[in-house]
């Protein structure tokens, strides 16, 4: 059976996760230039590479 402390611990985890997701969503809605300035990793992932086909797409089409 759950005790009070384990329930409050789970509630705290949910709140932390909810806050983290809210911040992540807010940062992902910023313009790409601002995301790059603050070092947001998703901004680097969305940057185009050297050509229209790069990385996994290029390897898949050349096989």
UniProtKB/TrEMBL annotation:
Taxonomic lineage from the root: Bacteria, Pseudomonadati, Pseudomonadota, Alphaproteobacteria, Hyphomicrobiales
Name the UniProt record assigns to this protein: DUF1127 domain-containing protein
Species: Hoeflea alexandrii
Region feature Disordered, mapped onto this chain: 43-63
Top-rank taxon, per record: Bacteria
């Amino acid at each position: 059976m759950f005790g009070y402390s384990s329930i409050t611990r789970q509630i705290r985890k949910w709140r932390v996760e909810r806050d983290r997701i809210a911040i992540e969503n807010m940062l992902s809605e910023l313009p790409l230039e601002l995301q790059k300035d603050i070092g947001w990793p998703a901004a680097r992932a969305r940057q185009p590479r050297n050509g229209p086909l790069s990385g996994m797409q290029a390897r898949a089409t050349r096989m």
